[in-house]
Design brief:
heterodimer; A: 3 strands; B: about 425 residues; alpha/beta; 7-stranded mixed β-sheet; 14 helices
Chain lengths: ~160, ~425
C-alpha cells in the first residue's frame, strides 16, 4: 500500500488549511441550531460540529476539534460539501460518503456527489483510519438530528 | 558523550552480563517478516512482546502430547497436564523469588489480577467477620497515581463507588516522575491500599518504591505494585520490594496471551474471600452453602488457561536462560542510544524522563504538532511498528496537555539499527507533514 494513496494532496491541503474551522453562532437568530461532540475512544480525537438550519437548508456548519490529519481534513471537506445545501442533497452526500468509507476500498466514488470527498477513497483501505474519517460526519448527523433534520438512515460499523 | 572512568575495585561496565542479540533474534520467527516491503522494525513490545520458537513449541507440544484438564483426573494425561501446569507455577514463583509457590495465582492478565484484589475488598467489605484489612467503607481511602494504566484506575474507581471509600492519587512531575512530595498527607491512617505502577507503560518511568513502602507500613495499609512493564524487563524480587501484591501479564514477557499472574503474600491471600465461584475453587459444596479451597486454587475457578500457563513457564525459562540482568542492561543501552538519537530530530518532545536513569525502554514523544496517528501511519509504511494514541493512560496525556502520544518500546530483541530506522522514519514524517 502506497502512503500517498492515503495521504492524498487534497487531504493534506484540507488538513493544513482547513475550511470553515471554528464554532460560530447562527447568523439568523431564528435559525434552529444543533450541536454534537464526538470522541474516538481509541485515540482520543475529538470534534464538535454545530449546524444552523431553517429546517430545509443548512445555512452554516461550523466545527472545532483536535485530531489526526484524516479526521481534521474530513471535517473541512464536510463543511465545504454540505454548507448551504438543502437537507435532501445533504442526505445523498452523507450516505455516499459513509458508503465509500465502509467499502473497504471496493467502492468507486462519484466526484459529482462527493467533490473533494473522493480523496478519502484510499482511507477506506485502512480499517484503523475509517473511524477518523467518519468522526465529523457522525457528529454532523447527530447535530443535524438535534436541529430537527434527519440526514442519513445509514448506521456504520467501523 | 563523555566517558566516565569507573574507579578500580568498583563494578566495571565490561562486567555486566551480555548476550548476543543476533542469536536471540533468530529465535523469533516473526522478526523475519516484511511489512509494506520493508524489514519489520517492531518497536511495540510494551504493548505485547513477540514469542520465541521455544515458547511456541511448548504451546504446540502441550496440545499435541499432554492435553487434559488439570487437578481432577487420575489418568496419565491428566497427571501430565497437572504437573506441567503446577510446574509452570513453580517456575514463575522462582522467577520473582516468591517465598511460596502457593502465592502465585494465575489470572487472565494484569487487569484481571488487579480486579481480583479489588473485588476481594468488595466482597469482604459488608462482612463483619472478614479481615479488617480488606473492609472498606466511607472514610477509607485508596491511593493510586496519575501515571497508572487504566487497568489500575478503573477497578479502584468502581470499588470506591461500591463501598463509599475515597480514591486519591499521587501527581506526576513535569519530568514524568512520581511526585512524592505529598506522601505523608496522601498515605495516612485512612489508607487501606496503595496501588501503584512500578514501570509506567507510557512514560517509561521506573518508580522508586522504598519511601512509599515505608510509609505504607507505617500506616498499616497494603501495597500493590503493577509490574506489567517491569517483570518482562528486569529482575524482580518480591521479597526485596516488600510489596503485598504484584501483578504482571504473560504476553509482554515472551509468553502467550490469556495468562497473567497475581502474586500475593500467603497470609493475605488466605484472608481474602473468593471472587469467582465455580469448579476447582471449593473445599466442599452442599446445596445450601460451600466452603473454599486454600489459595491459589480459591482464586482459580473453572478450567484455567492450562497451555498458556505452561507456555508462560517456558517463557520464564527462556528469559532466565538469557538472564534478566543482561536483558535489563541491553535495554538500558538501547534507551540511552534512543534518547540521544531522538534528541537529534527537530521538533521532537519526549514525555517522561529524558535520561536513561530510573526509566525503562519505553519512550513516548510528540513530533511537532503532527498527530500521532499520522506519525504511526507513515512509520508503518516504512515497516516501523509503534503505538499511537493515549496508551490506556489518558490522565497522563491530559497531564502533559496532549490528546495522544507516539510510543516506541524496546525489548531483548531490539537493535540500535531499528532505532536508526525509527529516526529515519521520523524524517519522512516531517517531509509529509512539514
Amino acid at each position: 500500500m502506497q502512503l500517498d494513496q492515503l495521504y492524498q494532496e487534497i487531504i493534506l491541503d484540507h488538513y493544513k488549511h482547513p475550511h470553515g474551522r471554528g464554532l460560530r453562532d447562527a447568523a439568523d437568530p431564528a435559525a434552529r441550531v444543533g450541536e454534537a461532540h464526538h470522541v474516538n475512544p481509541t485515540c482520543g480525537d475529538e470534534i464538535t460540529v454545530r449546524v444552523a438550519t431553517d429546517g430545509k437548508v443548512f445555512t452554516d456548519i461550523s466545527y472545532d476539534g483536535m485530531g489526526c490529519s484524516i479526521s481534521q481534513a474530513s471535517a473541512s471537506v464536510l463543511h465545504e460539501l454540505l454548507r448551504g445545501r438543502a437537507a435532501d442533497d445533504v442526505a445523498v452526500v452523507h450516505e455516499a460518503f459513509v458508503e465509500l468509507m465502509s467499502g473497504r476500498g471496493q467502492v468507486t466514488p462519484d466526484e459529482e456527489v462527493l467533490g473533494d470527498g473522493v480523496a478519502f477513497a484510499g482511507v477506506a483501505r485502512y480499517p484503523a483510519r475509517v473511524k477518523c474519517a467518519l468522526l465529523s460526519w457522525m457528529a454532523f448527523k447527530d447535530a443535524a438530528a438535534r436541529a430537527g433534520v434527519g440526514v442519513s438512515p445509514t448506521e456504520v460499523e467501523a | 558523550m563523555t566517558t566516565i572512568a569507573i574507579p578500580e575495585g568498583m563494578p566495571q561496565y565490561d562486567d555486566v552480563p551480555r548476550f548476543d542479540v543476533a542469536t536471540v533474534r533468530a529465535d523469533f520467527p516473526i522478526l523475519d517478516r516484511e511489512i509494506n516491503g520493508h524489514r519489520l522494525v517492531y518497536l511495540d513490545s510494551a504493548n505485547t512482546s513477540h514469542k520465541p520458537r521455544q515458547v511456541l513449541d511448548v504451546l504446540a507440544e502441550h496440545y499435541a502430547r499432554h492435553n487434559a484438564n488439570v487437578s481432577r483426573s487420575v489418568h496419565t494425561l491428566g497427571t501430565e497436564a497437572t504437573e506441567a501446569y503446577e510446574g509452570a507455577r513453580a517456575k514463575i514463583a522462582a522467577f520473582i523469588n516468591a517465598p511460596s509457590v502457593d502465592e502465585v495465582v494465575f489470572t487472565k492478565n494484569s487487569t484481571e489480577a488487579i480486579n481480583l484484589v479489588a473485588y476481594a475488598f468488595s466482597n469482604a467489605s459488608p462482612r463483619a467477620d472478614a479481615d479488617p484489612r480488606f473492609r472498606l467503607g466511607p472514610g477509607d481511602e485508596i491511593v493510586i497515581s496519575e501515571m497508572e494504566h487504566h487497568s489500575n484506575i478503573v477497578p479502584w474507581q468502581l470499588l470506591a463507588e461500591r463501598t463509599g471509600a475515597t480514591l486519591r492519587w499521587f501527581p506526576v512531575t513535569d519530568h514524568g516522575r512520581l511526585d512524592e512530595s505529598g506522601l505523608d498527607d496522601l498515605v495516612t491512617e485512612r489508607t487501606k491500599i496503595v496501588s501503584l505502577v512500578h514501570t509506567s507503560n507510557i512514560l517509561g518511568t521506573v518508580n522508586a518504591t522504598a519511601r512509599i513502602t515505608q510509609r505504607v507500613r507505617e500506616v498499616g495499609a497494603l501495597l500493590l505494585l503493577d509490574c506489567s512493564q517491569s517483570v518482562p524487563h528486569m529482575p524482580m524480587d518480591v521479597v526485596d520490594y516488600d510489596a503485598d501484591f504484584i501483578v504482571f501479564t504473560g504476553h509482554k514477557m515472551c509468553g502467550p496471551t490469556g495468562i497473567g499472574v497475581l502474586w500475593g503474600r500467603a497470609e493475605l491471600l488466605a484472608a481474602m474471600p473468593p471472587v469467582l465461584g465455580g469448579g476447582s475453587m471449593i473445599e466442599t459444596v452442599t446445596m445450601a452453602r460451600s466452603t473454599f479451597a486454600a489459595p491459589p486454587a480459591r482464586f482459580e475457578a473453572g478450567t484455567p488457561p492450562i497451555a498458556e500457563a505452561v507456555a508462560l513457564g517456558a517463557a520464564v525459562d527462556y528469559l532466565s536462560g538469557i538472564g534478566m540482568r543482561a536483558i535489563q542492561w541491553h535495554e538500558k543501552e538501547l534507551t540511552a542510544y534512543a534518547l540521544d538519537a531522538l534528541a537529534t530530530v527537530p521538533g521532537l518532545r519526549i514525555f517522561g524522563p529524558n535520561v536513561p536513569v530510573g526509566r525503562g525502554g519505553t519512550i513516548s514523544f510528540a513530533l511537532g504538532d503532527v498527530h500521532p496517528h499520522d506519525v504511526g501511519q507513515v512509520l508503518d509504511s516504512l515497516g516501523v511498528q509503534v503505538r499511537v494514541g493515549h496508551h490506556c493512560a489518558k490522565p497522563v496525556c491530559t497531564r502533559f496537555g496532549v490528546p495522544a502520544m507516539t510510543r516506541a518500546s524496546f525489548y531483548l530483541y531490539t537493535t540500535t539499527d531499528e532505532i536508526d530506522s525509527l529516526v529515519a522514519g521520523l524524517e519522512q514524517v516531517r517531509k509529509v507533514f512539514g
